[in-house]
Design brief:
binds nicotinamide-adenine-dinucleotide, Pyr_nuc-diS_OxRdtase, alpha/beta, FAD/NAD-binding_dom, oxidoreductase, 34% helix, FAD, Enolase-like, domain 1, five-stranded antiparallel beta sheet, binds flavin-adenine dinucleotide, 3 domains, FAD/NAD(P)-binding domain, Pyr_nucl-diS_OxRdtase_dimer, 494 residues, 23 strands, 16 helices
Length: 494
Amino acid sequence: MAGYDFDMIVIGGGAAGLTASGIAANFGAKTMMVEADRLGGDCTWTGCIPSKTLLKAGKVACQIKDAGKYGLIDAEPNIDFKKVMQHVDHVRKEVYHDADRPEIFEDMGIEVVHGLASFKDDHTIEIEYKDGRTRAVSSKYFIIATGAKAFVPPIDGIEEVDYLTNESLFEIEDLPEELLIIGGGPIGTEMSQAFVNLGSEVTIIDMADRILANDDPELVDILHDELKKQGVNYQLNASVKKVMQDGNRIKVQVEIKGEEKVIEGDALLMATGRRANTSSLNLEAAGVKTDKGNIVVDESCRSSQSNIYAAGDVTGRYQFTHMSEHMAKIAATKALLKVVPMKIEKDMVSWVTFTDPELAHVGKTEKQLKEEGEKYEVYRFPYSKIDRAVAEGETTGLVKVFAKKLSGKILGATAVGAHAGEFISEYAVAIKNGVSMRGIADTIHPYPSWGLGARRAADQWYIKNQSKWSVKLIKTIFGYRGDTPDYSDPDRVV
Ligand SMILES: Cc1cc2nc3c(=O)[nH]c(=O)nc-3n(C[C@H](O)[C@H](O)[C@H](O)COP(=O)(O)OP(=O)(O)OC[C@H]3O[C@@H](n4cnc5c(N)ncnc54)[C@H](O)[C@@H]3O)c2cc1C
Ligand SMILES: NC(=O)c1ccc[n+]([C@@H]2O[C@H](COP(=O)([O-])OP(=O)(O)OC[C@H]3O[C@@H](n4cnc5c(N)ncnc54)[C@H](O)[C@@H]3O)[C@@H](O)[C@H]2O)c1
């Protein structure tokens, strides 16, 4: 590949960029990774890691309050918010040190450069260093992995308000007394629980009629009810008209079903979706097309310019760390090895909202199955029948599996409840490898694990596929004298 400085240049050092550069170097490609800020990106610094650490701190506080549930004595947790935030910072630095720091990638032979990249043409970028110096480098291939940032809608008055986004939220030192959150998606929902557990009064304001629009409504209702019980307030169907700063108070004027009201707090978190980071890239110079700001890619993660690929949040496709990594793997492999048959696995996308209870999903949603006209059965299993859930006092929850009736082929699964995010991976392996409900039901699961819930849910397939007719046949052949069970109730759970 003479003629170019590098075989592969990866722009962005978040989940997608780190994965893509590592794979490229492993294939023997001369690789550069350019990062404008800190390696680790959103997930390590302003996303997954700080949010999950904060959720855990809130959960511990909540467990102290609820210790009576376990035969212990309830207590009011003594929360030093500054220390909680120091802990959050410590954890993200630990993750950075263990997995993201430049030396780890330099040891793989990757040239790690800190600077802002923009295209000069389809084979050349210019890197602008912090001190203003610039450097032009060329490469045969590029992977754009520049991520996304909070999208703040142009609400009247927003520019005059001291609002927070995920970039500033984990830097605050004082616990908000009354936290307003615009947006009841995954960010708003997770952060509402973290802050309510740490002692804030929290109100979620959303224009939609329900939170977590991408999840199964039946399961969302279970989580929503729990969050309300835990103290989160909701203002749904709320059209936000205006926001105002009044000293250290923030006022949000909303209209709900024709009625205007003002909701007040001392902090406002904007959690209203994401926008791809493409504005600094000068994509026109490289002939890379975008749609609503997102880089358009095909199933191989290839952009409209054949030597330029994109992966992760910048494509606007599935804004999760594991999907960024999945796309990065495909982008690097397809760019460098071409013939390997790999494409984005869009039928088995998974995600988890890490509230307590957790809300997890993999594969097709029921909405998708209906839209596609797929024939499927729903197998439900309540947490109240999982012995581990009973032992741990975590019986709120439901497992729902969508599978083909006769073959038991699993099309999708979703669960709300404790550890749902852990055992959803069992369904991911099942869907990927064509393991049916029968395969899960026939697999020994340790007792009393949470994962046993997956087997018990799969048992329902056996039960649903039994019929009076087959039992009568068995009774006749072997001369058995017991009753024939009543299979008429479709929701019968054994
Ligand atoms: C609060 C919050 C919680 C989340 N929780 C979860 C979770 O629990 N699980 C989950 O799966 N996902 C979660 N996500 C989503 C997850 O963080 C993202 O999907 C993931 O980090 C995207 O990775 P990425 O590599 O595509 O982008 P990023 O991590 O954003 O990385 C892009 C990098 O590119 C750099 N960059 C941008 N422009 C340039 C340029 N021109 N030149 C050089 N460098 C540039 C940026 O500085 C950045 O470091 C969460 C997100 C948020 C905000
Ligand atoms: N656990 C996880 O995996 C996790 C956690 C957090 C974030 N994420 C990722 O980050 C992405 C972004 O999360 P998010 O919660 O910001 O976005 P989102 O797009 O999922 O949800 C935004 C919410 O804001 C509401 N909204 C938008 N504009 C509004 C307005 N003007 N007034 C009132 N309500 C408004 C929408 O109705 C929606 O409910 C997620 O889609 C997800 O991919 C993942």
